[in-house]
Design goal:
With 535 residues, the protein is mainly α. The chain has 17 helices and three strands. It has a three-stranded antiparallel beta sheet. The longest helix is centred in the C-terminal third of the chain and has 80 residues. The N terminus is likely disordered.
């Protein structure tokens, strides 16, 4: 059985880990630091530094003193990925390769001789390499965190328009973006997009970023029934009817989807999203929008995410933090589903209350018209007016229940699926690493048998294959550690955003409810003197 992966290293554990990667680090400097200070000319450290540079260049992982590499797909500013590392290094990395002696004060101190030298050389070596795709995400999160405070993106989806009639009809929406991001051509842009364009956007973002452990917001679900009503209903009938409700819900859901995507520190810098928001040209049509619908994505995540997260992870997970998160989000999803069911029931009862209130108001008006007593007839008519106003308050509360609170809960139920997909990608990376380790052990056993048999030709071939398999093992371990690190950052950002969204929505929901109750009290207080005045 292959060895299980080590827990994800914390920030405090990274330095000791890097110190043990090089063999016999204490022999990097054959002369103590004290000797270097007294006799710097006897042993110029240039030769040792070159050897260190060569050793570091052969290492499969960058040292912790050098910034992690970043994939080009996550950030367009590739040239700035290592700007911080090179800016603080003195002397400049290029001077290390010159055949001039380096003073002991610029290379190392008595407490940390290896770390300082390694930092100078590693920065020089890493700059010469292209950023590794697997290690891209961590550097992005560090560099673009400040951009969230400096730049903002506000997106509104409005003006739904029906194009065509019958089965060939479809809806388009006006997407307006206001931003101060420098990558946008203008501070305000307006384009029109159809629903399939939104589905294609979500699919392309997922294809690029999900493999790195990014949480991609889900697009709204397709509704065959709702869209069929919209296609075959006339414009006059659609206004104020069920199809208008469906269109408004979809519009609001599309707006939330775009704002969540644009608020992501990595997705907002992706050309896919930028072109969607500002390109005036018509976007390429999605190949299969049915597979990209919300129901299709839920089936995909349920078939893939649940299998890996609920079954495999229990057998192989060694990081307690991820194990706790899996359990937390499993329980959270069940709780959100129960809460959404209660909200739907509450909305249904409030609608029934609205209907009953309207019937009561109508009956009171009829009774007031038939009443012969003048003051009593007037009071009954005023009661009917008050009940009609209360009916409108109930309708407003139904809208608040559904659009302010219910839709938020529904959105986060949908966000559980991308979370499952991220855990599934991490599990796949772990399985690939373990498979590579198992194959390497088998190949080494085969090499031992061939050596015992004296088959030198096959031993040579086997040794070459072992070298390739060792590279695969190292790459698999690196990819697993990188996706784990990215997921930690993504989950932490998700938690912060979740708390912010729920706090904002709950406060808004309570404010609306209090306003309705205040209006309700005013209506009854205004009616009470009239009721007391009945002679």
């Amino acid at each position: 059985m292959s060895a299980s992966p080590p827990p994800f290293p914390s920030d405090d554990e990274k330095e000791p880990q890097a110190a043990t990667e090089n063999e016999e680090p204490e022999e990097l400097f054959s002369i103590p630091v004290e000797s270097l200070e007294t006799k710097p000319a006897e042993e110029p450290p240039t030769k040792d530094l070159d050897n260190i540079a060569l050793d570091d260049a052969d290492e499969p992982k960058p040292s912790p003193s050098a910034p992690p590499a970043e994939e080009a797909a996550d950030d367009d500013d590739d040239g700035d990925l290592f700007a911080d590392a090179t800016a603080t290094t003195e002397p400049e990395p290029t001077k290390v390769k010159e055949d001039t002696p380096v003073s002991p004060s610029s290379t190392a101190t008595a407490d940390e001789p290896e770390e300082r030298v390694s930092s100078v050389v590693d920065n020089d070596v890493v700059v010469e390499k292209e950023p590794a795709s697997a290690a891209a995400a961590a550097e992005d999160d560090a560099e673009i965190a400040e951009d969230l405070d400096k730049f903002s993106v506000q997106i509104t989806v409005s003006d739904p328009e029906k194009i065509g009639d019958g089965m060939g009809a479809y809806m388009t929406y006006q997407v307006t973006t206001k931003t101060n991001l420098p990558r946008f051509k203008a501070a305000s842009t307006t384009v029109r997009r159809r629903f399939s364009d939104f589905l294609a956007l979500q699919s392309r973002l997922q294809e690029v970023h999900l493999k790195n452990g990014r949480i991609i917001p889900p697009a709204p679900e397709k509704s065959v029934v709702g869209m069929a009503k919209t296609k075959f209903s006339k414009e006059e009938q659609a206004k104020g009817g069920a199809s208008q409700d469906f269109i408004e819900r979809r519009r609001a859901a599309l707006e939330r989807f775009l704002n969540r995507s644009a608020s992501h520190p990595v997705l907002r810098k992706d050309d896919i999203l930028t072109d969607f928001l500002q390109s005036p040209d018509e976007l390429p049509k999605a190949a299969d929008t049915s597979a990209l619908s919300g129901a299709g994505m839920m089936r995909l995540f349920k078939g893939v995410g649940d299998v890996f997260v609920k079954i495999t992870s229990r057998k192989t997970e060694t990081d307690r933090w991820f194990e706790e998160k899996v359990a937390q989000y499993t329980a959270l999803e069940e709780t959100l589903k129960k809460l959404y069911t209660c909200i739907e029931s509450l909305v249904t009862h409030r609608r029934e209350l609205c209907t009953s209130t309207a019937l009561f108001a109508k009956s009171s008006a009829i009774l007031g018209n038939t009443e012969e007593h003048t003051s009593l007839s007037r009071v009954l008519s005023q009661l009917a007016d008050v009940e009609e106003k209360i009916e409108q308050l109930h309708l407003d509360q139904v809208e608040n229940d559904f659009f302010i609170f219910g839709e938020l809960v529904k959105d986060y139920i949908g966000l559980m699926n991308p979370l499952k997909a991220c855990f599934s990608q991490r599990e796949k990376a772990y399985q690939a690493w373990q498979t590579a380790q198992t194959n390497l052990l088998k190949k080494r056993e085969q090499e031992g048998k061939l050596q015992a048999a004296g088959n030198t030709e096959k031993v040579k071939i086997c040794q070459d294959e072992i070298v390739q398999m060792e590279t695969r093992v190292e790459k698999g371990e690196e990819e697993f550690n990188n996706i784990s690190k990215v997921m930690r950052t993504e989950i932490e950002r998700f938690e912060v955003q979740r708390q912010k969204d729920f706090k904002s929505s709950v406060l808004r929901y309570l404010e609306k409810m209090m306003q309705n109750q205040e209006q309700l009290i005013k209506h009854w207080e205004g009616f009470l003197p009239e009721a007391k005045a009945i002679a």
